[in-house]
Amino acid sequence: MRIEAERFHKATGKTERETRYYISSLAPDVPRLNQLVRQHWGIENKLHWVLDVAFGEDQSRKRAGNAAQNFSLLNRIVLNLLKQETTLKRGIKGKRLKAAWDPAYLLKLLGI
Question: What is the DSSP annotation of the chain?
Fold first, then answer.
């Protein structure tokens, strides 16, 4: 399938257009396929946004060997642990700070 996407950048005021191609074994139901693609990218964008804002992944300077990939995996594990913990009413960044300052909370997150 082919999807023609358009994105408006608020900061620059410019519109960007691109064509994306996908291969699927699903029936050619245009509204459904469009919904699935948008859903996938919505999840992907939310994950990367959280990893960048709360974990500063875009600012990371890890380049040697597998360091970037290893730390990215650890960040995702930590993100999942923080999302599962619901007793503290703070955002991901706030929960990370609390875990750094409060050893008891850290152990609670780790299930120890």
Answer: -EEEEEEEETTTTEEEEEEEE----S---HHHHHHHHHHHHHHHHHHHHHHHHHH-GGG----STTHHHHHHHHHHHHHHHHHH--SS-S-HHHHHHHHHH-HHHHHHHHT-
